[in-house]
Specification:
Elements lengths: L2 H14 L2 E7 L6 H11 L5 E7 L6 H7 L3 E4 L5 H11 L4 E4 L11 H9 L4 E5 L11 H18 L11 E4 L3 H4 L8 H11 L4 E5 L13 H14 L2 H24 L10 H31 L6 H9 L2 H28 L8 H32 L1
Parallel strand pairs: 1-2, 1-4, 2-3, 5-7
Antiparallel strand pairs: 4-6, 5-6
C-alpha cells in the first residue's frame, strides 16, 4: 500500500470512528496499561480510539500508555477539567466516553453508555450511589455527594442523582452548546449544570464503584467547596436574589414591628430594631440588584435563555424602572421634609420623630440603588442590541 493510500485509509478509519474513550491520568503508572487493555476489549466491536491525557505525571504513565497503543496527550496544566477538555479537543469520535484511570469503574459498562447514546440520549451519566463496594467511597463522600447533587438539582433543576460520577458519555455535537470551561474537579458539576440549562436529554445508568488502585487525588473539603462555588456562581438567583429577598422581608417585618409597637424587648429597643431592619432592607435591595445584573449578564452576554427575566424585560423597560426609582426617592424626600419641618417648628431642638427620619433615609438610599441598577442592566443589554 502506497503512503497516499495509507493516509487515505487512516482518514477513512477516523471518519468512521464512533467512540473516543478519554482517560485523564495523573501518576497512574500502576493502572494505565490495564485501563487501556480493558477499554480496547470493551470496544472490540466498535470503531474507537483510546486517548490518555497525561496531566503532568512524574512517573512513567505517559510512556506506558503510549507503549500500550493509546494516543497520549500531554497536558501540563493541572486539573481534572483541564485534562478532560484537552482530551475532548484531541478526540475524533462521534461519541466521547470519560472514565477515570484508577480502575474504580468497569470498562465493560462502556457499551451500555454507547447504546443509550444510540437511543437518543445526549449525555449519559453513571450513578454509583446504590452500588458502592465496601471501602470504595469515604464516609464524607457518601454524605457530601448526595447533598451537593441534591443542591444542584434544587438550584438548577437537574434530575441527575449522582452529579460527580467519573464515568459518563456524551455526543460530540453537544460540546459547543455545553461550552465547558472549568479546569478542576468542579468540571463534573459544570457539565451537569450546563446540560440542565440547555435542556439536553440526560439519562442515568447504575454503575458499580470499586476500590481504587493507588493514591486518591481527591481533596474532599477543597473539591467540595469548588463544586459548591460553581453551583452558586451559575445561579444568580440562589446566590443573590433569594438571600436578598430574605433580607428585605426580614427587614420590612422588623420595621413594621416597630411601628406597630409590637417589640418584645420594650420601647428602648424600638430605635435599634428599626435601624437594623432598615439596614437589612438596604443591603437586601443591593444584593437583589446584583442578582438581577447577574441574570442580565447571563442573558445578554453569555446568550443563555431565561424565560422569567426576558418576560419581565418585555414589560418593564429602563424608563419604567427609573420612574419607580424616582417615586421611591421622592417618597423618602417627602418624609424627610416632614421631619425637617417639625424640627424647624420646634426651634431646631431634638429631632422629633427619629423613626420617620430613618425610614425616609432608607427610601432615598434604596431608590438610588434602583436607579443605578436599572442603568447597569440596560448597559449590559447594549451587548445584545449591538
Amino acid at each position: 500500500m502506497t503512503r497516499s493510500a495509507t493516509e487515505q485509509f487512516e482518514q477513512l478509519t477516523v471518519a468512521r470512528r464512533r467512540v473516543s474513550v478519554v482517560i485523564p491520568c495523573l501518576n497512574e503508572a500502576g493502572n494505565i496499561e490495564e485501563c487501556i487493555a480493558r477499554a480496547r476489549s470493551a470496544l472490540a466491536n466498535l470503531a474507537s480510539e483510546v486517548i490518555v491525557v497525561d496531566n503532568g505525571s512524574d512517573d512513567a504513565s505517559a510512556a506506558l500508555a503510549r507503549a500500550a497503543g493509546a494516543t497520549v496527550v500531554l497536558e501540563p496544566r493541572r486539573g481534572y477539567g483541564q485534562a478532560c477538555l484537552s482530551g475532548f479537543e484531541a478526540s475524533s469520535g462521534e461519541y466521547i466516553v470519560m472514565i477515570d484511570a484508577d480502575l474504580t469503574y468497569d470498562f465493560d459498562e462502556i457499551p451500555r453508555f454507547v447504546t443509550e447514546l444510540d437511543r437518543g440520549a445526549q449525555l449519559v451519566m453513571g450513578n454509583r450511589m446504590e452500588h458502592i463496594e465496601s471501602g470504595a467511597m469515604s464516609r464524607m463522600s457518601r454524605i457530601g455527594n448526595p447533598i451537593l447533587s441534591g443542591f444542584l438539582k434544587l438550584v438548577h433543576g437537574s434530575r441527575v442523582r449522582d452529579a460527580h460520577c467519573g464515568l459518563r458519555a456524551l455526543r460530540r455535537d453537544a460540546l459547543p452548546a455545553l461550552d465547558l470551561h472549568a479546569t478542576g474537579m468542579e468540571f463534573a458539576s459544570e457539565m451537569v449544570i450546563r446540560a440542565a440549562k440547555i435542556n439536553l436529554d440526560v439519562r442515568e445508568l447504575p454503575v458499580e464503584l470499586h476500590r481504587r488502585r493507588g493514591e486518591s487525588k481527591l481533596l474532599p473539603f477543597r473539591d467540595g467547596w469548588r463544586h459548591l462555588r460553581l453551583i452558586l456562581i451559575h445561579s444568580p438567583t440562589a446566590l443573590f436574589i433569594v438571600p436578598g429577598a430574605a433580607m428585605v422581608g426580614l427587614g420590612a417585618a422588623m420595621e413594621l414591628t416597630v411601628f406597630a409597637h409590637l417589640s418584645l424587648f420594650g420601647r428602648s429597643w424600638f430605635l435599634h430594631t428599626l435601624i437594623a431592619g432598615c439596614a437589612l432592607v438596604i443591603v437586601g435591595v443591593q444584593v437583589i440588584g446584583l442578582g438581577l445584573c447577574g441574570r442580565a449578564y447571563a442573558v445578554f452576554v453569555l446568550g443563555e435563555r431565561d424565560a422569567w427575566f426576558e418576560a419581565v424585560g418585555r414589560r418593564v423597560g429602563l424608563e419604567q424602572a427609573l420612574l419607580l426609582a424616582l417615586v421611591v426617592v421622592l417618597s423618602g424626600l417627602a418624609l424627610g421634609g416632614v421631619v425637617v419641618a417639625e424640627w424647624v417648628a420646634h426651634g431646631f431642638g431634638s429631632l422629633g420623630e427619629e423613626r420617620v427620619a430613618i425610614v425616609a433615609m432608607t427610601l432615598v438610599v434604596t431608590g438610588i440603588q434602583l436607579f443605578f441598577t436599572s442603568f447597569l442592566i440596560s448597559l449590559l443589554g447594549q451587548r445584545r442590541q449591538g
